Amino acid sequence: MHHGNEKDNGASCHTQDAFEHERMFVLPQGNHLLSLMTVLRDAKTNSTLFAETTERVGDQLIAAALDFVPAEKTPVVSPTGSTYQGMRHTAPVCGVSILRAGASLENAMRRGYAGPLSFGKVLIQRDEETCQPKLFYSKFPPNIASQRVMVLEPMLATGGSACAAINVIKAQGVPEENIIFVNVLASRYGAKTLFSRFPQIRLVTAAVDEDMTLSNHIDPGLGDFGDRFYGTYDS
């Protein structure tokens, strides 16, 4: 399994010297992905281009995450009349968006998965008095406990909201090992926090940054994902 150590192709000096875990999958750090991440990280990128680029990274993330969803051999007859031993996903999948940014990955899930698919929503915000994550809203399909669950959350900074969301999902009867956390950018701290609380989940991400700012933003990061995706930042 690839854990994010970039292959030496002579064309890039980017490295991915970050936290690793046996249940973490970091997308291969090739020049195509790095070019997309450069667009996302560039402060000059406008909201339209940011959203379009997120869709392209999301396609890669969902494709990688789906490799962890059960599939069975499915023979089909090709146009030449020969039998091809193919594969087809069999497990129902539920994508749970941590609002609001997580919804940015839903279209990629719809494009990428041809099997039974449903969606859930979780809204978690910080309580200003306690400074702890607080659940404000959740909605799940009634049979989520029997589905493979992909938690959609582009940014994993401290891990507080992510852990709160996973607790809500587990409370619905979803086994921890059936949860895949799909993420655009994680901090080393956030990834360690996630696995310290939930060692059996899987994390699929496009990049891991080593540092955090004093205000707990991923550094170098890409700014406030939701504001940039939805165009709600100050101009």
TrEMBL record:
Which Pfam families does the UniProt entry name for this protein?
A: UPRTase
| Residue ranges of domain Phosphoribosyltransferase in the record | 29-232
Query: Enzyme class, one word?
Result: transferase
> Keywords for this entry?
Allosteric enzyme, Glycosyltransferase, GTP-binding, Nucleotide-binding, Transferase
Q: In which pathway does it act?
A: Pyrimidine metabolism; UMP biosynthesis via salvage pathway; UMP from uracil: step 1/1
Q: Which domain of life is it from?
A: Eukaryota
Q: Which cofactor does it need?
A: Mg(2+)
Presence of keyword GTP-binding: yes
**What Enzyme Commission number(s) appear in the record?**
2.4.2.9
GO terms (BP aspect)? pyrimidine-containing compound salvage
Q: Which GO terms describe its molecular function?
A: GTP binding; uracil phosphoribosyltransferase activity
* Gene3D superfamilies associated with the record: 3.40.50.2020
Q: What's the family?
A: Belongs to the UPRTase family.
- PANTHER family, A to Z: ADENINE PHOSPHORIBOSYLTRANSFERASE, URACIL PHOSPHORIBOSYLTRANSFERASE, CHLOROPLASTIC
Among NCBIfam families, the record links this protein to: PRK00129.1
Protein name per its UniProtKB record: uracil phosphoribosyltransferase
Query: Which organism encodes this protein?
Result: Penicillium atrosanguineum
